[in-house]
Specification:
The longest helix is centred in the last third of the chain and has 22 residues, at 304-325. The protein has helices at 3-21, 24-30, 47-63, 78-85, 100-107, 143-153, 167-179, 191-199, 210-219, 266-280, 283-291, 304-325; strands at 36-40, 67-71, 93-97, 119-135, 158-161, 184-187, 205-209, 222-227, 253-261. Strands 1, 2, 3, 4, 5, 6, 7, 8 and 9 form a 9-stranded mixed sheet that branches. It folds into 2 domains: 3-127 and 255-325, D-Maltodextrin-Binding Protein, domain 2, CATH 3.40.190; 129-227, D-Maltodextrin-Binding Protein, domain 2 (3-Layer(aba) Sandwich), CATH 3.40.190. With 330 residues, it is an alpha/beta fold. It starts with a helix and ends in a 5-residue tail after the last helix. Helices cover 45% and strands 18% of the residues.
Length: 330
């Protein structure tokens, strides 16, 4: 469908939805009248899916309706984002996505949606640090030894990631640039397969979110070489940041946001956002997020404007990095 025709269809759908639901005050009182779908661009069991299911369960308390998690995988999250951008804007379909919303315009030559203009912004969700981990029998015992090992064995070292457009892919690109060593990258169809390959010794390194790596680090199943935040993590206070260990300015934090199709009723977007903020303050949710090393953003970022701002900033930040790396997909 051509962009102009798609825009007309979206406008007609939004108008039909508005006419069907009547005045805003009536919608605010009746919404939600049925289950809400939260689309996850990645496989079940992955970091984004874990967060989505945790929040969806907690949001039911405020919404009084089930939040159905729908995993729509493929193409670095663009399949899910496209589906939500084209969904009926009636307030019953939402998308949770991470930094991939900001990197997609640079990664994909042909993108069927515009992340900046084809969605209603709901809120940021959480910030998740990244960790650089290696297989448990990798000879290097710390990051200093790892750098030496990489320079001596660059052609033999494999760096896994969860697929083009995944944050592990982005982190891997930045890491290779920072250490100045060309490593062989191995893409997988999701975080779980990439982690399984690391656990099985088929690959050597993986840069991924604490929501995925923490259990394996704590069990000793993988080696932790550093964290990607500006300061050390409370979860692993003895582990220095990569910046501390010589990669000056190296910082990658995974931020998540929730979006709705353009033209979705403001009352529905606002109510969904309020339920999200309530869920993030739930003691059980907060405790679990802290355990996984994730952090809830400040109140000013838990807003539509907060999400719009970071999306714009990150789009400008990562575009040149991706283009310099020559990482593109059709």
């Amino acid at each position: 469908m051509k962009p102009i025709r798609r825009s007309i269809v979206r406008t007609l759908l939004a108008t039909a939805a508005a006419l069907a639901i009547g005045p805003g005050s009536a919608l605010a009182q009746s919404y939600p009248a049925k289950p809400i779908t939260l689309v996850v661009p990645f496989a079940a069991g992955g970091p984004t899916d874990v967060v989505a299911r945790m929040l969806g369960a907690a949001m039911m308390k405020s919404l009084g309706q089930t939040v159905v998690i729908e995993n729509k995988t493929g193409a670095g999250g663009t399949i899910a984002a496209t589906a939500v951008a084209r969904a009926v804007p009636d307030g019953y379909t939402f998308l949770i996505h991470h930094n991939g919303m900001a990197t997609a315009p640079a990664l994909y030559r042909k993108l069927s949606y515009n992340p900046l203009t084809d969605f209603e912004y709901v809120s940021q969700v959480i910030d998740v640090p990244m960790t650089l981990v290696g297989r448990k029998d990798l000879p290097a015992k710390d990051f200093k030894e790892l750098q030496t090992y990489l320079r001596a064995n660059a052609s033999k070292v494999n760096l896994a990631h969860a697929g083009l457009g995944a944050v592990s892919h982005l982190c891997g690109m930045l890491f290779r640039q920072a250490v100045g060593v060309e490593l062989t990258t191995v893409p997988y169809q999701g975080t779980s397969p990439a982690m399984n390959a690391l656990l099985g010794g088929q690959v050597d390194l993986l840069c991924d979110q604490t929501t995925s790596t923490t259990p394996f680090i704590k069990s000793g199943s993988v080696k932790l070489y550093g964290v990607t935040t500006s300061s050390r993590l409370k979860t692993f206070p003895e582990t220095p940041t990569l910046a501390e260990q010589g990669l000056a300015g190296f910082q990658v934090v995974v931020w998540h946001g929730i979006y709705a199709p353009k033209g979705s009723p403001k009352e529905a977007v606002d109510k969904f956002g309020a339920a999200l903020r309530a869920a993030l303050k739930d003691p059980a949710v907060a405790a679990r997020l802290a355990e996984l090393g994730a952090a809830v953003p400040s109140d000013d970022r838990l807003t539509p404007v907060g999400l719009q701002t970071i999306l714009q900033q990150e789009t400008q930040r990562y575009g040149p990095v991706i283009k310099a790396a020559g990482q593109f997909a059709d």
